[in-house]
Amino acid sequence: MPDLSGLFPSPLAALVMLTGIALAALARGYTGFGSSALIVASWSLVADPVRAVALALIFEVAASIVQAREVRHWVPWRKVFVVLAAAIAGTPAGIAILAFAPREMLKLGIAIFVLIASVILFAGFRIKKAPGTTENIAIGLFSGTVNGATSMGGLPVALFFTASIDSPQEIRAAMVAYLCLLDIFGIGMLAASGLVTAVTVFDFLIAMPILFAGLWLGGKGFAIASPQMFRKVVLALLITLASAGIIRTILS
To answer: 93: which of 40, 142, 216, 221 is 20 to 30 A away, CA to CA?
Structure first.
C-alpha cells in the first residue's frame, strides 16, 4: 500500500487545495475551460506542481465526460479536430524549446500575450471573417508548442475560439471537446513517465463530489447568461488567469 499520509501538509493547505478545486469546477461548468490553470495555480502554492498537473488533466477529462451529453450537439467538430491534430504535432516543438529557453520566461511571455489579447477583445474587438483551415492549423500548432513548453496551451485556444465563434454554446462546447481530447494525450504522456500514481487517484476521489457540484452550479449559471455576459465572463477569466500567471512568475 502506498503511503498517503501527509498529503495535506496543514489545515490551511487543505483549505487552499479544496477551494482551488471548487473554483475550477465552477469555471469549467460555466465556461468549458479554466480548471487546469486554477488547480495548478492554487495547488502549487502548497503542494508539488507535478501532483497538481496530474490531477488537473484527469479532472478535465472527467469534467468533459460529465458535460458530454449537454454539449455534444454544439461542438464544431471539424474545427476542434483540425486544431487538435495541429496541437499534437506542435507539442514536440514545445518540448524541444525547453532545452534552451527558460520555462518561467516562456510562461511569462505567454501570460502577457493572453492578457493583452484578452483586454483587446474585452474592449470589443472581434474577428469579422470566420477563420479557415490555415488559421485553425496555425492556432493548433501554436497551442501545442505552448502546451509542450509551458502546459498553458488551452489559454490561446480559448482566446481564439472566443474571438472567432459567435455562439456561446459553440465556444463552450468546443473547449470541452478540445481539452478532453488534448488532456487524454497529456495523461498518456504523464502515465508513461510514471507521474500518474496512487496519490493522483486519491486526489481525484477527494475532488469528485466538488467536481460534480461545481459543474452543476456552473452549468446553471451558463444557462441563464446572455451571450454578451458569457463573453465578458470568459474574457475576465482569461485576464485573471493571465495576470495570476504573470504575478506568480515574477514572484518565483
So the answer is: 40
